[in-house]
Each structure stands twice: as structure tokens, then as C-alpha cells.
Amino acid sequence: MVEIPAVPLTLEGSATLHQFFRFEWSKWRASTQGERTEILAEFSALLTKLETDATGRIQTALFSQLGHKGDLIFVHFRDTFEALNQVELELAQTKLYDFLDLRHSYVSVVELGLYESSRKTWDAAAAKGLEPHTPEWNADVEASMQRGAEAMKPRLFPSMPEAKYLCFYPMDRKRGENKNWYTVPFAERQRMMHLHGMIGRRYGDVVKQIITGSIGMDDWEWGVDLFANDPVVFKKLIYEMRFDEVSAEYALFGQFFLGVRLPLDKLTDWTSGKI
Question: pLDDT for 15-30, tens place per residue?
């Protein structure tokens, strides 16, 4: 049995950006109908271009946000961070952007954690007589990761689920004096993550979950996007997970954001107070 490294293997995919805007309603109402029509036509044309890529994947989606934290949520998936930055810049050039006050954002990358397969990958390398962390070991593990990335490509570079509701929240693992996830032995973390994942799988037919990693990119360690056609399912899933060991003992949660899908052809209605 090979000595287990502390850090589980991960696969990374789409660069991801969440933008949370306050809409300046008073400024909007002060504009003329002709100005509004021109502004919305320009913005809708850009969003139509940004919404899907050449393969038909939905890569940008718009949500009407509930609550006091903001009015609109934009979620963007792109294959590179350069492309993600280009989206920001293009949006900023529009006239409608003058009516948008960016209150919050979140930068991350789609991540698949491999607690289940990390051990198998390391054991397979050891079975070939390779010593851990040597160039030969690293090359063998990297080749295995490349095969995994190809097999998991649809999950790593997803199309935005076409569900009606979005729930987004960031989270950390505890690193305190009494509870520190990063000092727990790998096998124990693997056990807890397996049980944690089983809860999510039970909701797989009603909730689409996309996990993004943000260590070194934003203020939390992960971002979680949940997509569903019934928002009450978010409450049930997250509530059940609170009783799970890995969440109850080691999880810290940031703010929660809830939005209703806003189709691009409904943006004009939305600016008139209708959804």
C-alpha cells in the first residue's frame, strides 16, 4: 500500500464568474422610452451573442434576484479565464451597464474532487513499482488524470442547466484549533466525503449541482450552484446536508443568493416591472 498524499486529486474545467448587480431603478425611470428601447436592444444583442457557444452550450444565464442583496445575477461559464474577462469587458461597454451597480462577484473554476479515485490512481502507480512524487510517478498520475478529464469533459465544461431557479453560495472547510479539515487523515476525509456525496445523489433527479473551486481565486474555498425547478428543494437538500458529518463538523457557509431564471426575451418586461 502506497503512502497516501494529503491532497486529493482534482480535475478543473470551465472558468466561472458570478456577478450580482443592483439595478438603478430611479435612473432608469428618468430615461425616455426611446432611450430605453435603444439601450435594451443593444444589451439584448450582446447577451444573445454571449448566451451560447459554437457547440450550443449555454454559457451565460441571467436571473432575477430575490431579496435585498441585489436585483440581477449573471452566471458565466467560459473555457478560459481570458474569455471570462472578455465577457466582463464587453458587458461594461454597453449603455445598460450605466444602470447596473455591481454589488458582489465570485470567481472560480468548475472542479471535480476525486476523493474516491485518488487512492486508486496512487495505488495503480505504486503497483508499477513507481516511487511517490518521482518524475515517473508524477507522469503516470498525470496521464491517468488526462484520461479522466477526457471522460468527464461534459461535467468539467458544462452547459448551464435550463432550470427555473438558481441557488448560489460559497463555503469553506474549517481550519480552527479544534476542528481542522486539513489535518484529518486522508482515509477519514474520503469516508466522510463519500457519505456526503450520497445525500446529493438522492436529489440528483430534481437538483443539478455544479461545484467550483476558488482557493487562490476568491475569498472562499468553493462555490456551489444548485439549479432546480422547485426552490423548496434547495432548502430540503441543504437542510439534510447540515446533519451530515462533514457539514456539521467541518463546513462554514457564506451568503446564499436565490434567483429566478430571466430569459433574454423577457428582459424588457423585467425592466417594466414584470416577470
Answer: 999 999 999 999 999 9
pLDDT for residue 1 is more than 70: no
Residue 88: inside a domain, yes or no? yes
User: What domain range includes position 54?
Assistant: 14-110
pLDDT in tens, 106-132: 999 999 988 888 888 888 888 898 888
In this structure, is residue 250 part of a structural domain? no
Q: Any long-range contacts for 179-185 (C-beta under 8 Å, 24+ apart)?
A: 179/249, 179/250, 181/250, 182/6, 184/250, 185/4
C-alpha cell at 62: 441571467
Position 253 in a domain = no
CATH for 56? 3.30.70.1030
| Cβ atoms of residues 91 and 84 within 8 Å | no
The span from the CA of 57 to the CA of 67, in Å, is 29
- Within a domain: residue 270? no
The pLDDT score that the predictor gives to residue 64 is 98
Q: Is the pTM of this model over 0.90?
A: yes
**Domains held by the chain: number:** 1
Among all residues, which ones are annotated catalytic?
Answer: 169
